[in-house]
Fold these 2 entries.
Entry 1:
Amino acid sequence: MKATIDVCLSPELMHLYDVQGKVVVVVDILRATSCMTTALAHGIEHIQPFAKLEECLQAKHNGYFTAGERDGKKVEGFDLGNSPFEYMVPALQGKKIAFTTTNGTQAIAKSKGADTIIIGSFLNLETVVNYLRQQTKNILVVCAGWKGKVNLEDTLFAGAVVELLKDQIKPDCDAPLMAQRLYLDAKEDMVAYLQQSSHVKRLARLNIHKDIVFCLTPNQYQVLPIMQKGLLVDLHRS
Amino acid sequence: MKATIDVCLSPELMHLYDVQGKVVVVVDILRATSCMTTALAHGIEHIQPFAKLEECLQAKHNGYFTAGERDGKKVEGFDLGNSPFEYMVPALQGKKIAFTTTNGTQAIAKSKGADTIIIGSFLNLETVVNYLRQQTKNILVVCAGWKGKVNLEDTLFAGAVVELLKDQIKPDCDAPLMAQRLYLDAKEDMVAYLQQSSHVKRLARLNIHKDIVFCLTPNQYQVLPIMQKGLLVDLHRS
């Protein structure tokens, strides 16, 4: 049987999808999975994702740097926020990070039970797609969205994956088809395309235009963040 | 405050939206709301929607014709199925219909509590948009989808409404924006655009191409199906 690709546009729809036996790609472009990709590319040893703030903060006692974001802002008491540029510093090389965000780490939690969980972002798009090409299992792209609602940037990433795999895998459901059409419509200038997006407007108010432009730039890194025993590591280093 | 428009892409996301005080437009292009529009346009007195098959069938004892569809097919024991052409017959004029479908009547049930519930389809698109132009309340388009998952045809209708109202109401969330972009991409030839859609493929296997083409034809009727005391009636006749 040929592999299939499907897209879950919001974590609130996850009960409609069976993750068992699948390769799940979790995506939260602005900015959780972009940060995770950047962190592993810059030599962070591993990332432990937490759905809850309190549990994440506790990891400090186990030698973790803590990264906490809610509503686009860094949470008080945490070492790091949700800007990819924070993860490029040499001081973090070889360190462990405990990570919690509004949407991204919740989407990871809901993907539990999948055969494989990997992290996708535009920053490692090609690496993700090359990895998926080698798989024989069915694929599910899980968009983190915004507090349960769908968002444009995660959908565009899902659409990019569908488009780049189209010669091998045909989308068989409407969500991947919609994502693919939107990506084809947007790909020439994603920054401009996203200007109207609600989350981009929300983040623009936080003065992080530089983050947005970076997170929408494809193929900056060759890392493949993969979940192994509850920890995100770079497959190529593990 | 200026009115807003939002789109709920699946009934499974309805808990994220507050319908109170809103005008809700329920859409199930293939084919529940297209049938309802057609039925009222052809002189059916009113339609009572039911979420459950058994309750719908009971209405037979109260002088109702019963219409029951599950998985695209007419259910045994019901008078009518889910093809708009079934509702064009003179024998049904002035009659009452009890209606239950896989997705459409469920979406109506989940919209309970809204200030106003109307029914939309491409067949009465312009009438729906003209009605919405006169409203000052916030608008929510509820897509019936397919068994909880999003579908392309309902999303395209939502996008058409957003596009046609854009001079008065700006979409403030990503779902209406996505729907609008998809509609703009599709509008020149919606039948061709939908060829790849999962639901259209499913229905094509049931040999209802004629239904699909009809349901995607804008502005065939000037009826405005509106919920009054649990019954769908044509606003212009009520």
Note: The domain at 5-230 of chain B is CATH 3.90.1560.10 (putative 2-phosphosulfolactate phosphatase).
Entry 2:
Amino acid sequence: MNIHDENGTTVLRRADEKEPPRTLANLLIGKPLATADAPHETIGKVVGLAVFASDALSSTAYAPQEIMAILIVAGLSSYQYVFPIALVIVGLLAIVTISYEQTIHAYPNGGGAFIVSRDNLGMWAGKIAAAALLSDYILTVAVSISSGVAQIVSAFPNLFDYRVWIAVGLIFLIMLINLRGVRESGIIFAVPTYFFVVMMFVTVIVGLVRYFSGSLGTVIDPPEMEMLHSTQVVTGFLLIRAFANGTTALTGVEAISDGIPAFRQPRSHNAGVTLIWMSCILGALMLGISFLGANIHALPSEVETVISQLARTAYDGRGTLYLMTIIATMVILVMAANTSFADFPRLGAFAAADGLLPRQLTQKGARLVFSRGIVLLALMASLLVIIFQASVSRLIPLYAIGVFVSFTLSQTGMARRWFKIGKLKEGEEVKERSSVLRYEPTWKFKMIINGFGAVATFAVMIMFAATKFMDGAWVIILIIPLLVTLFSVIQRHYINLAKKLSMDNYGSPPPRVTRNRVLVPIGGVHRGTLAALRYARALSDDITAVHIAVDPEEAERVRQKWEQWGDGVRLMIVESSYRRFMEPLLLYIDEIYQRKQPNEVITIVVPMFVSHKRATDILHTNTADALREALMFRKGIVITNVPYLID
Amino acid sequence: MNIHDENGTTVLRRADEKEPPRTLANLLIGKPLATADAPHETIGKVVGLAVFASDALSSTAYAPQEIMAILIVAGLSSYQYVFPIALVIVGLLAIVTISYEQTIHAYPNGGGAFIVSRDNLGMWAGKIAAAALLSDYILTVAVSISSGVAQIVSAFPNLFDYRVWIAVGLIFLIMLINLRGVRESGIIFAVPTYFFVVMMFVTVIVGLVRYFSGSLGTVIDPPEMEMLHSTQVVTGFLLIRAFANGTTALTGVEAISDGIPAFRQPRSHNAGVTLIWMSCILGALMLGISFLGANIHALPSEVETVISQLARTAYDGRGTLYLMTIIATMVILVMAANTSFADFPRLGAFAAADGLLPRQLTQKGARLVFSRGIVLLALMASLLVIIFQASVSRLIPLYAIGVFVSFTLSQTGMARRWFKIGKLKEGEEVKERSSVLRYEPTWKFKMIINGFGAVATFAVMIMFAATKFMDGAWVIILIIPLLVTLFSVIQRHYINLAKKLSMDNYGSPPPRVTRNRVLVPIGGVHRGTLAALRYARALSDDITAVHIAVDPEEAERVRQKWEQWGDGVRLMIVESSYRRFMEPLLLYIDEIYQRKQPNEVITIVVPMFVSHKRATDILHTNTADALREALMFRKGIVITNVPYLID
């Protein structure tokens, strides 16, 4: 349908515009929505849980083990504190869940930490949240994959020596899948997530039944540990460190608040219910695994995971149920890593839309740009895996800080939002950038909830940073301000650019171009040259073909052929005494440029060979790119390639 | 000076054409010669020796040690064979030197193995020689740098654990220097080469004087060796293996025959004399170091080099003279590696001129292409250093094969050339591609000399390949045919391309272009847009500005601004329902393309921001490149960027 308006502007609105292909990324970030469209194909709570919960639920695979890894230095007797610590963490989970429940209802179009902190606290807070989240996504990949490989190694101890390369291989496999942009449905997520949930509950329930009936016992043949008979005593500091490690269980809880638009209407309601289900499952598994892990005296080891020790104790050996549990755990960890591959470019796009990152990142369709983000993520995560030798325990001190920074900012932003709502009159509505503020009588209560969430997550963040600083947390504490600085530099560049390009104070436009001098550099007279000449003819009547005479005999051949095929166009042969091509050509162009009038432009038309065999591209000189590079800063010179298909 | 001829062709001959800047590469490969010019600024024998000898002379730093490294498995008593083996190697050196002496006089413009074998044996031989030499250059860098680092480690044993990274660091330093293209004079070569020659002769003479006066003794506190008390006996196979290792002393002897054009007139005479000097120095050092090394019972070790053990025995400890000897050795090894950085791209250019490698490599001035060759060489050499842990002994089995393949081909080619000369009449001259054949009465004698050289070097090559096959020689024996295949594939591509582009059977040219439809995609109305519009105006009267309306409010702003600034040009607003930019634009272009007449072209004019701060380029969307990529195969669409300088 075309609508013409009176000023010569035509508006093209395509009724049949095709929906872009659905990719794994689309599914995670919500189906691409037509601006004017009401959402029609969305997901319900059951699929939603599968899609958004893998990151959060998979953390039960390492969080209990990492609590034990700290306590074990004080010997097995310290295991009495594992369950109480898990209880405190589940309490924290409850606080965070209730806080996010409010965010989900306030931001039905998606309330990630970046948007909530930017809108309510200002751009500086948004920048910190974005920096924290970007580093967190890299760590999610590194930690999840390392933990996934640790599960494989637990079942197949011979693979221990290859764990780093298996991990890097898995990261690159996920990268390739994401680069290809597989079209997937929720089922791909539903199967492994629910398989994991079922297997873990079966394991925990079998374990609990056997424990209370007295038939469980402890791990047979546990992995060797040197520090087992340590005489260190349990200190408050040790307990805090163990607690800090356990808080990694909370990573991924925020995923649903980012993905609200993917849910079926009523979106906020469905997303909120899903969040509560997810937190209940997460909390139950966390308590169950911690309780049983401590009671069977599982030892936190690089060689065998606690999950593996628990499963083979519950199932009396490495049978089918054991193997299914390990596989389920491994797969959900890989799925968790995979979600970062969708989150990372999406957050990049949000930040880019605000001018904090290169603008190209906002173009979802631009495969190349999207690809670069995916490759960057894979490389950074692989680097971490190699540096830390795929050891979850060594990666953990870097993890969780970013998550808790974003929790804190997001909850503070929400509290601030309730405060603003409290100042509205009843029935009043204020439209903000990403949400609508409406008066609510319960604003004080809700402000206190989010405020309490902010204080609690801030306290955990400080605890984590302080107790893990030397173990690696300093890396993240260094990287976040560096990223924030980078955002600011990029933002300043765009602001300055906009000023320079602005039409304000532009004055009157320059006079029209009166002469377009066209140069056609030719290496020889062939079909590609003639295609370029034919195009040049369409641009101007003022054309000069230029041949750089590296070899005098060749130059003579060119002159003779040009007489036959040159269509009467002037030919200039420039002798090159030093057998060079670019320098004499640039010198000649420069001479013409010096004599250029203000209203004249120079167009250089260069044939370019193109072939369906893309590998052969490197066999053809790209003169146009070389000229563009050399003449970039000469005002009034334009370089044009005329493609010539050689196959 | 301009010479117009009658056909509208202008010939531009510049009397003042500037000589290209002299770089380190220029110096090594001969100053850039103006085609019509007689060479005027060339080097004499003293500087010539310094420039071309570093590769050959530096091999005395490892060749004697590598002979001993094989013999030592049969215990110290086997050291009686070190000097005899060195004598045989010097004999081989004499044969090769006399053979190359004849090449130098036959090819006054440079007679590298590639040119000599291609011209006399055919392109297949040229391809093998080129493949052998390219792999050899990579190994020269890896071996020389590894040996250089071994010298440093000998003097500073604490650095042993960091040897791989020091080696990689040095390679990257040399790479950076070559990428920058330092302007250098012969002095830079003369100082370290002569410093090395002097230090080595002083060390050898001091050693010999003390040996014959009976005061030398053996190495105090030699590096530990497990195999020292081995009971293995000396076999013929062991001697052949030791000899094969020692032939690495001959690597680099061919350098002068490549560099003849750099010498002062009479070029061949000067180059020939320099070659003989170089071989004499090399032979003398080889014999001296082998004799002394064996007699002081120096042990071939990764921890301390034979040179280091010899120097501290001759100078009674690690004093100033010792340190000067080590530094001189280290520096000349680095210089030797550096020569490969000039040889590698130069051979690439020769091969490219024959269509065996991408044509761009022939363009000396094209910095980018030259740079890629340098970076490739550095990466490959670094990879070898990392894989072989900077161990000269482990790299040696890969080395020397390439050199002896090229020796054999080159000498066979020369023998063939004498045979052709023998069939000429007296006084007759035949101009071949790179040299002139003139009858010589002594042709039979000279043919026998080159023929003998060919047989000798071929025998060494077979010996080397057979005894070192499993140790790593297989890698090179595999790589050479792979490279030859690659050359053939590339060559075939160029031959096919030339056929397809040929004007034979072209028929009559297509009719002229009757309509040039210009599209100007605009994201907003700003100064860059107006620059693109102004250029579009110069191309055609048929212009449409296209705005992809991702955001309806922004689209309305564009429409209003266009009314003011659009100069009456038609504006098309294409609505994008899925917030995408490229897809709707491509769809729109496609619709216009479908309606295109055969004599119509479509030009898409895209503004491109350019800035002197090149780092900011990644902050600007390069729509033109994306369109070029997407529309490459659409005949009759040309994409043009109009640069707009933003600072």
Note: Confidence is low (pLDDT under 50) at residues 22-40 of chain B.
